[in-house]
Amino acid sequence: MTLTLAVETSSRVYGAALLDDDRVLARASADRGDPGFVDVGVLAGGVIRDAGRSVADLDRLAVDVGPGNLASVRAGIAYVNAVAFARGVPVVALDSLSLLTTQAGRLPALVLRPAGGTAVYASLTSADGHATLRHGDVDVVVKELAERLAGTTEPVALAGSRRDYAAALLAGHGLATHDTGLDAPDVDALTVRLRAGEHDPAVVSAAPLTESSVRFRGDGFTAAREALLDGGVALLPTDTVYGLAVHPRRPAAIDTLFALKDRPRTRELPIMVATPDELPALGVQVTEAARRLLAAFSPGPLTVALGIDATTAPGWLQGRDEIGVRVPSDPDLRALLSDVGPLLVTSANAHGEPTAQAPGPILDQLAGRPDAVVDGGVRSGVPSTVVNCHLDVPRIEREGAVPASEIERVINA
Amino acid sequence: MTAVLPDDGLMLGIETSCDDTGVAVVRPDGEVVAAAVASQVELHDRYGGVYPEMASRAHVDAILPTVRKVLTDADLRPSDLTAIGVTRGPGLIGSLVVGTNSAVGLGDGWGLPVYGVNHLRGHLRSADLDERRVDYPAMVLLVSGGHTLLAHLPAPGAVELVGSTRDDSVGEAYDKVARMLGLPYPGGPAIDKLAKTGTPDVAFPRPAKDLELDFSFSGLKSSVSRFLAANPDRAGGSGAADVAASFVDACLDVLVAKCRKALARYPSRCLVVVGGVAASPQVRAAAQQLCDEAGVSLCLPPLRWSTDNGAMIGLAAWDYLARGLDGRPRPDTSLTIADW
């Protein structure tokens, strides 16, 4: 029995629904422009009360993370994340483009949502279910997506904004269209997806889907994401120094990484995670001192070494009894970590050399080229402070960007 | 009606009206048990100002970790809290909705009442953080990136707006002039620092002389812009320091003249200077000189409570609780200082 509160606020009609497993117990929607409308919390509280349940009964929440009206999307995400945080339950994040595609009910489907001026967020889902996301000028984006549809004879279902305009553009490419009449998704699309189990795993807190999200990027981060999932090595900017990253479920990549650094595979690599809340599920044992340090300095330039509980750790951590953990503060890198999960990351330098501050000198130094390079300009070059919390008394093993006095203040507080 | 405050309790204050995510736990007497601010200065420095979309997204990322940090620092559990106070306006709508909806979500999740607080009343109360300083009746000068106003406080909780800006806030003028001089965002501290090394040798206008107690800063900003266009050599080096000193001088003259007039017109035992610009050493010194001359005391919040923060919202929320102003906070960008 999983009790789920679903919230949808990406357009002016807000919706909330309460599901017990795949049974909808209560549902409500309201126009935020109506007099008497207060906010999403009142709507959500209403469906919980209607079903005779309480917030304390919730097992998880689900929310439309946009893109859509900026303030409306943020209202839903902020409320859902806060309830999830307060109750210690996870959040299922669904994007409004895929929700509209679900509501369109047929493939191929092209869904557009406004992004200010002539820009749009676009999602094209082909007949085999593969989705391509783009953000940019409507003419440029639709033209590129139309070329992907070349030779399609089925009419393309259109949903979201600018449907007439998109239909005319697609007609110019010899493509037939079907107007679904749908402007924006509603909460029923969330319940359909939750009941079908068609969504990513629940996370600790949902982030809004905007053009800065990794999935829209036709640039370095997208290439890095692909390279990491394909078992390659990516050079990534962090909030401290540049790092070389590999995906932990692609162990062969670790050998490639050490070869690039021209160093034998002598030591175990630390991990970066999007949030400290992911650590228990990895079997990482967060001590009281580590909890305080992470609360004070994460996300940020702090690495804590912690013990591993082999009974809950995933396969790729078996055999290790200690691991260095860091939550970087760089928003793009955290978006990537939210997307692909924890990454093994080490500083991007050749054995015995300092870490250069920009990709050019780093690539000159490395013994080979990483599979993907994200150019984040010049980075500080000051590494993170490393604190070993796997000892009886925590010890600062390297003083970096966080001063030792700050670490001691928090540990001894 | 005098507000009756409970003797103890812990209020969680949340402030997200602009570009800082402020969270604090505050007792009814103004004691700040713990506080943290997640600043977006680095983010907005790249663009020379606040971009609402990015500000709103950054609040989503920062707000819950900041709440967790404050509770951890104070070694508190949610069940130790009495209530939550959150800024409901005025401010950027995208930022306000993150704060109010997060606060309501926390309140629902923890079973706590949530009070929607007027950001401007938060600034008024900032002068009583850490210790009680304000002596009524009082005159308040609120000077920040978003606001420039004078208000008279006959008694605790009572507010009468007596003057406000017709166009830009003084903080906005600081930020814009800082950009003209190639200084980083936020412009206030950078201009103050540069001005100290310069000589005020440019006679910029002292605007709003005839606007009674109202202010106007857009004319001053434009005259700096025109001056720099006509004298491009003064935009850098020691020339820039002199321009900064002349600009600060003009701002101070206007602020002091209006305060002097307000103190003469409304009975006041003290002058309270709050808001981000109250962190300026020049503003503090000029206000002290005026108070000495006018025979009133000067109340300044500690520097860390001058800029936007959660503690001032937490303290103001106790006033709402005492008055029974319960209700679901709904963002409102149009609140004035007299509103609750």
Walk me through the structure.
The complex is a heterodimer of chains A (413) and B (340). Chain A is built from twelve helices and 20 strands. Chain A is globular. Chain A has helices spanning 40-50, 70-87, 96-104, 138-148, 163-172, 187-196, 220-229, 252-260, 288-297, 331-340, 359-365, 404-412; strands at 3-8, 13-20, 23-31, 60-64, 91-94, 109-114, 119-125, 131-137, 156-160, 177-179, 234-237, 242-246, 271-272, 284-285, 302-308, 322-326, 343-347, 372-373, 385-388, 395-398. In chain A, a hairpin with a 5-residue loop joins strand 7 (119-125) and strand 8. In chain A, the strands form three sheets. In chain A, strands 11, 12, 13, 14, 15, 16, 17, 18, 19 and 20 form a ten-stranded mixed sheet that branches. The two termini of chain A are 42 Å apart. In chain A, helix 3 crosses helix 6 and helix 7 packs parallel to helix 10 (331-340). Chain A is an alpha/beta fold. Chain B has 340 residues and is α/β, with parallel strands linked by helices. Chain B has a five-stranded mixed sheet, with helices on both faces. Chain B has a five-stranded mixed sheet with strand order 8-7-6-9-10, sandwiched between helices. In chain B, strand 9, helix 9 (281-294) and strand 10 (297-299) form a beta-alpha-beta unit. In chain B, helix 2 packs parallel to helix 3 (93-110) and helix 6 crosses helix 8 (237-265). The longest helix of chain B is centred in the C-terminal third of the chain and has 29 residues, at 237-265. Chain B starts with 10 loop residues before the first strand and ends in an 18-residue tail after the last helix. The mean pLDDT of chain B is 91. The A-B interface holds A 38-42, 44-45, 55, 70-72, 74-87, 205, 207-208, 210, 212, 291-292, 295-296, 298-299, 331, 334, 413 and B 52-53, 56-61, 63-65, 67-69, 72-73, 78, 93-94, 97-106, 108-111, 328, 330.
